[in-house]
Amino acid sequence: MDPHLLRTFLAVAETGSFSAAAQRLQYTQSAVSQHVAALEADLGTPLFTRRPVALTPAGERLRRHAELLLVRLEAARADVTRAVAPPGRLVLGLTPLAWAVPVAAALATIRAESARLRTRVRVAARDRIVEAVATGEVDLGLVDGFTAPSDPLRLPEPGAGGPRSVGVGESPAVVAVPSAHPLARRRAVDLADLADAYWIDAPDVAPFARLPVDGLRAGVRYDGTDAAVLAGLVAGGHGLAVLPLPLVSAHPGLTGVPVGTPRLVHRVELLRLPAVAPDEPAERLAHLLTAPT
Fold first, then answer.
1. Same domain, 29 and 76
2. End-to-end CA distance of the chain
3. How far is CA 218 from CA 203, 207, 239, 279, in A?
4. Is residue 59 pLDDT above 80, yes or no?
């Protein structure tokens, strides 16, 4: 099956429209229809009903395979590219709050060991970093989230040959409030008691939708990835946010109120593909971040 046809198929499946898929892919609608028709002819079965556009049972089966196939193709391309690339390159992907672990010190160590090391740091939302590690766009990923103590983050299943994760740090989770806020004097607070409060929805930094409690509502939505901006919005009284204690403690206008129930910690996990060579900078960085202190 042609990967180009699979990408067109997935675009139609995700948008539910041939015209919307054409806009996304910058194709003509006729080209999208031809791609889908060619794939259906190759497989000998319809993949979509046309009015309305919806996946057939065969299309549902193909969708599950197509997503994995395209990820593995991108990973193969990145692996071959890395094999022939000049040595001394490190691309690190991380979510905004993953910087809470001692990444800066570890990076300084390996850069001191290799003065010519070319380093790139990419910051993005968690799902994007997971995908970038799976496809080989980044050599290592650091992702974070809030979970019960010692529980791993809920990440997509890696599948055979996919990225593996290991915890590299945990810190207390607190409700960040302005220092003059009435809650700042509380010893602890239950999230369920804050259903009537306004929260800051920061889907790429600290999405409150992932918190294990229902009924929270957003007063402000922040679409950036700068944790300092999110902290400033909380300090300015625009809403509450659950954040790691070190970030809150570093901001003079914030107070962190411990979460009573549900019990939560801020967890950071390192993601990497198992095929990384032991002498690569990515492996050295992984060792520094996972070594016992």
1. yes
2. 49
3. 11, 10, 8, 46
4. yes
Domain that holds residue 35: 3-82
**Is the pLDDT assigned to residue 174 strictly greater than 90?**
yes
Same domain, 159 and 174: no
Number of domains in the chain: 3
**CA torsion through residues 220, 202, 20, 49, sign:** negative
* pTM recorded for the entire structure: 0.71
- Mean of the pLDDT values across residues 150-176? 83
Q: What pLDDT is attached to residue 3?
A: 86
Give the span between the Cα atoms of 235 and 130, in whole angstroms.
Answer: 31
Would strands 265-272 and 164-178 be described as parallel, antiparallel, or unpaired? antiparallel
CATH number at residue 142: 3.40.190.10
Q: Residue 178's beta-bridge partner residues? A: 254
CA dist., res. 119 & res. 141, Å (int):
14
